[in-house]
Amino acid sequence: MNDDWERRVAAAWDEFDGYGEDRAEEFRERIERLAAELPPDSPRAPFERACAHDSTGHSDRAVPLYQEALARGIAGYRRRRTVIQLASSLRNTGRVEEGIALLTPELDAEHDELDDAVRATLALCLVDADRAREAVSLAVGALAPHLPRYQRSMANYARLLVEPGPSPA
Description:
The radius of gyration is 18 Å and the shape is elongated. It contains nine helices and no strands. The protein has a domain of 104 residues: Serine Threonine Protein Phosphatase 5, Tetratricopeptide repeat (Alpha Horseshoe). Helix content is 66%, strand content 0%.
């Protein structure tokens, strides 16, 4: 991987919306060509392939590729993206409990800009697992810090959905 490759893959993703559903295969082929330029053991190659399949409506094809990226040791920010996207794809393919198991440890991971995406994806998984109170708690808890007012109250309401305690003030 080099700066030129990074620019080309970023350009492909920047142009993704221009492909439309009728040209999804063309987009996947473009990402495939870029991924093929990477070393054979690169975790980035299956990650990019997974993203292309996922983004074009093929979560079933994305799951094993995300798993391969994790097995190859994808790290840092992309590791967390891989976990979030894999969990979402697992949910989309009816494997919601696996998605929950994958995302739950991310609640305690080092915090970054993906925290809300973790919570939103986990909330969707929880809804599909008939755990709606937990899902709403996560969603409201993630939203609370972004509100111009009522942050403390909303955070308390979110907590109270899943654990008993005093009423919010």
